[in-house]
Amino acid sequence: MDIATQSIDGGFAEPVFNAQVVFRAIMDAMARPGAVQDVPQLTRPPAPLSATAAAAALSLCDNDTPVWLDPPLQAEASVKAWLGFHTGAPMANTPADAHFALIANPKEMAALDGFAQGTQEYPDRSTTLIFLVDDLASGPSLLLEGPGIEKTSMIAPPGMPRHFVEQWKQNNQRFPRGVDIILAAPGSLACLPRTTRIKTMEA
């Protein structure tokens, strides 16, 4: 299949309705950090972009939201063409320019503080990171506390960035600035907003 065909096929069949379904799942996940939300398979993007991450991108990105791709995604012309065709979003030149970032390999990614952090006046001008993860249960357990969580919540995504808990503490300290994370797994997603505190289960 040529790049031109790959860049058009596999988007939302019913763009408005599908986008609303995924957007609602993301909003519910942001309101209840660590709670897993089901996301039906609504997209067939070119590899290595996953269906859940692609659905999140199609629901959130538009021509006003520059998107950063990590090296595995950046290397695939078909991924860039597909996102450009279905969202109209321009590619960000640097992580600090990105409104959204798609990360296929979180373990090897640049530090969280290299992405847009927002400002005190406009904290929403920060990057929302969409991590592609294999699942939400097979990695080291993360204990979550904070707004939207009754006492504690737990999630265990594999392949998270190096020194993630330490990096996330620093992210908390920048509040109201800081990044938010969407964990996109096959058929489901969960969110880590900047207000959520994270500990490892050993701590």
Automatic annotation (TrEMBL):
InterPro entries: PhnH-like_sp, Phosphonate_metab_PhnH
GO biological process: organic phosphonate metabolic process
GO molecular function: lyase activity
Keywords, sorted A to Z: Lyase
Signal peptide region: none
Top-rank taxon, per record: Bacteria
Pfam family, one: PhnH
UniProt xrefs under NCBIfam families: PhnH_redo (TIGR03292)
Name this polypeptide is given: Phosphonate C-P lyase system protein PhnH
Originating species: Mesorhizobium atlanticum
